[in-house]
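ok trying again, last paste got cut off:
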Amino acid sequence: MKTKVVTYMCFLANSAMRNRVFNTAILMVFLLGPAYEPLHLVAGISAPVNVVDFGVKGDGVADDTAGLQAAIASACSGPLNLHIPAGKFLISGTLSLCTGLHLWGDSSQSSLFIKTRPGPAFSINGAKYIVIEHINISGGTGGDASSHGISMTTGSFSVFIRDVYVSGMAGNGIDLNHTIHVSISESKLTGNMGDGLSSQIGGTLTVEHCYLNENLGNGMTVTSQNARYIGDVFESNSGYGAVLGGNGIFQGNYFEGNTLRALSVRGDDYLIAGNLIFGDMELAKGAYNITVQSNHFGTPSPGSYNILIDSGTHDVLVELNLGTIFQEAGARNVNVGGPGGSRSLLSPPPGKK
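nice, full thing came through this time. structure:
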């Protein structure tokens, strides 16, 4: 897969139109997955814009907003390749990203953006084919509920986020609204005042190998269609670990220490499989066409259950799970099969909503 991407990218690099077809190159990276040669290392791609050339200090004292936005504008009109060196970059405004931009830092530990006033740190408003990687975004003072680390709005398409650390924002770590084809991988969303990740009405969202912990809202609240959540950790969030609307695959994830339930499934056509869950999960009222298979649960407290099937849920298959099950009267077409797990129609466990 890596060879395919590099070959394709080198073909584009040798073209006289390479800067104008860079969008297509980023789309190929998105489609072929995360095992790609970093774009700034591929031979023939134009040298990146360096923010230092635009008066950016990165000293944690000067407001670098204007210089950073000027550097972004320069990259957007030319190489579409922007390097963020190690440093602490104070930003009072919101940095707007353009179609085709590849923004990358030295590492998610050393290239640090600190948001000092309300509003998102980064905004993607209807732009497409963007790659953001190896940066750190932190909330400062004076934020409000709109102060997200990365905000994407209607029409944003094919955005790839990798190795991005977002913490301490007054809003959500990453906030998506009517977006399509967004991939978030190897990232950490921690200690935000809202949710680690919030996605409202979108399509083809992928979240892989991410760590969502200690957020004051939920670790993740999503309503995306055709979604994939693979190998993520949801730990010590003050709300739910994850709230799933929409539909998709939720597999190989880990939950521990979330204040409310570990997992709440509120959508349809979901496969919930192979997860390790310390805490309980619910199939909420209205959820349907749900398969819960081969999950491992921690030992529930006395009188409690691991899987709660709410009244109004229907067309559910629960099998091969290591855990106990409570099914409310009124749930329809519920099939519990295979070894492991037991079902009860008795009174709900303490604290059941």
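cool. The radius of gyration is 22 Å. Residues 51 and 71 are 5 Å apart (CA to CA).
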